[in-house]
Amino acid sequence: KQEVTQIPAALSVPEGENLVLNCSFTDSAIYNLQWFRQDPGKGLTSLLLIQSSQREQTSGRLNASLDKSSGRSTLYIAASQPGDSATYLCASPAKAAGNKLTFGGGTRVLVKP
Amino acid sequence: EADIYQTPRYLVIGTGKKITLECSQTMGHDKMYWYQQDPGMELHLIHYSYGVNSTEKGDLSSESTVSRIRTEHFPLTLESARPSHTSQYLCASTGGGSTEAFFGQGTRLTVV
Predict the structure, then answer these.
(1) CA dist list (Å): A9 to A72, A106, B2
(2) Taking residues B97-109, what's their average pLDDT?
(3) For a tag site, which of A11, A14, A95, A97 has the least CB within 10 Å?
């Protein structure tokens, strides 16, 4: 069974600092790894999708890396802004789990002006 | 832009009522999911569908039921709502394999 863990559970930084969010997973036989953003009371918005054959993916200030051998992915957010305050979740469909999306608990981020 | 829709967005209903939460996607995705999420808490998978006429219960036990008669439609039903069912319900879909997953905006259910 795929287990996904995110550390830290919460993070508070001053505006302008870079953010580093960690995601670890137990089953490395994955199709991909996806990072989402969730604002309070809302659905999830897809940020980045890294295919299992890729090492990283970039979109604007966001960069996500994937190391399947160690079961880890890291989301970097450069030059954080107050608008980046949200909960960030990672998820992966493991092949052994029939492609079911398994989520980590999320990292709640607060960027202070 | 994700083409997956949930209705209603908010629902307040009395105990004992039957409710159906709607989820539709226009992307032709085979796999659809229902998650339950309490405020500030983790997402829990409650139902999963591989395709038409194929559904499974998720990791979290739920008194709700689902059906998948059409590819684009994955409704969730509670036969008799209780206050313990108060939560946010999120629907998602993916084409499977290496494709991206998309979420609806969620339905916030309150049972009084």
Answers:
(1) 16, 6, 27
(2) 88
(3) A14
